[in-house]
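Below is our example:

___
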Amino acid sequence: MDNNRKQSLLAGGLISSAGLLISKFLSLFYTIPFDTILQTKANRSIYSQGYNVYSYILMIASAGLPFAVATLVARYVARGDYKSALLVKKISFYTMTALGFICMCFMVVFSAPIAQQIIEGSNNIRIMRITLIILSLAVFIIPILSSFRGFYQGLKEMEIYSASQIIEQIVRIVFLLGASCIAIYIFQADRVWAVYFGVIATSVSGFLTILYIKSYDKKKIAPIKQLANQQDGSGIEASVIFRELVYLAIPFLITAAFGYCDTLVNQWDFIPGLTANGVTDKATITLFQDGVYFKAMKLIAIPMILAPGFSSAIYPYITEAREKKQPSLVKKYISNCVESVVYIALPICFALFVFARPIIYTLYGPTGNDLEVYTEILQIFALEGLAATVCPIFTSLVMSLGQRKKIIITTMIFAIIKIATNRWFISMFGVPGMVFSSFLAYVIFAGLNVLIIQKSYNVNWKYTLRKVFFMFLGLVGFYLIAQVFGLFGMIDYTGNRILSLLYLGVMGIISCLAYFGITAVCNVPQSIFNFNLSSIKKRIKK
């Protein structure tokens, strides 16, 4: 494969992942002051569970159209049909606006029964219902934002895609913390207003990010319009493009509905499963909910952004290679994407496991039994973080290869396994049962998708498996370095949180360098990301 093409794909994946990663890190660290503002576990539970419902409905509201838009734009640009590419942008905007409006109305109408299903206590149900109604506005705005992102993704303008993620998160955090502090500390409002302003911030940031992306239209769209004016013919009809969008989006919609059902299934099964396990104390259940939804799930979301990040880059490149009938290039793209995600995901998820205790203490400051419970929850959820990071990349690959019907089947199998085993596993193992259920479903799901890929392109995984072996060897070095820090008490430190953050940074950097050093000796990152250490050393010396 041409090195420039390989670097372009990896650069696109890394750039889009970097934007998502930075936004996730920002959302992670704002929780430190926001946790103090929310104050109670009940408020934190309402805030986090409300977002879980919003995220699931948002996936349905988006209906997979952003990826469908990216695929069509990449296809028409590769063909030189710029008029059709511009028409895709227009049609997708109106379609996403209509879908967002419908889902917003649905969320408002069904806010009461949803709230009753996921939370207990009449006052908490009322607050949750208001929270869901406020979030419904974001369900209308964010799909419109996604349509713009999908267009630029199809143009391979990953810098704009990535920057918009960061800007959206910065605006959200500034508004969230600013409005909450003014309401709570200046106007002495009830702490529940922090929940309300927290969810309002999503709509505000989404609207301002749309304006940011629109500011690029004149600069980026003008050359395409010029090429469209020079193009012979009238392009594809609007009705045909709309049918193509629907045809591409329906599999995305179905896979989103079934593939991310684990979030809602976990919420529905959480209390009944724990009750069957013998956990009936409300304080203990609330502690577990706080540990799972407001801490562990937020932290494992950091590596999980690699899948959508690289997915954003996959579609235009593989679509272009398939349009130009370059099967060998498609095979290389597939192996490169998998290797890149696994190489980055492994040390991040392993760090969440090894440094779970200092991470929880540094970010949230619990002590005693709460710290121990949160640490154990994060350690077990690190396993789900790895599975939920690596396995979804196969969804993107199968989709981009045009095997949409097959991905629907494998995703439904994933959902069936999760639904069938989740409550049963929770009743047997407690909170870890949620992870065991998801991990089992993910492994079977990934295995089925690999078989589909093999039937289509017969990818040679021999060298990929060899690299993965060396990656695990690098994790051994990571673990040994971490144990040395443990001997000096740095992992178990629970004093000043600023000093704890310093310790955590030192431990994380040195341990990751050990992972990188061992894998670099085995030539793993050089072969994946296409760089030469010797040339880099020479440049540094110069």
